[in-house]
Amino acid sequence: MNKDASKGIGGSTLRHALRTELLDGFSNARDLSSRLGVPEKDIAHHLEHLGRTLRGAGGRLEIEPACCLACGFVFRKRDRLTSPTSCPICHAERIQPPRFHVEPGSVARSERPGTSRLKKARSRPMRWDDADDDRDDAWFYEQKFAS
Hints:
By secondary structure, the protein is an alpha+beta fold. The chain has helices spanning about 15-25, 30-35, 40-55, 135-145; strands at about 25-30, 60-65, 65-70, 95, 100-105. The protein is built from four helices and five strands; from the N terminus they run H-E-H-H-E-E-E-E-H. The relative contact order is 0.13.
């Protein structure tokens, strides 16, 4: 992916422009590609990242699954955001591509109670030699000086 593809419409980033397009309603990758001026193969990559960003902000990326136009099979369990090449039932290649829509979050992450912009410092993982140090030391001194 080239660096020019990260620029969107009107000075905003491509993912911001993609989010704005998807707020209006359902669109497939080809429509988004033509509206944003980005190759269709790059749209799936940007949609994955947009989905992660939305999850963190309380929103979600809704996906209307692809379906076979010949037999009506719906690709519900497909994890990939790209369009399948053929139907597993009738082997037809007339597939309606998946469509995407952004469902915005109710409250921004920084405004939710109990969350802050600063991450808590993680303590280092416990090692075998420093577990229960206080109890081990107390036991050692009892055994050594009790007699």
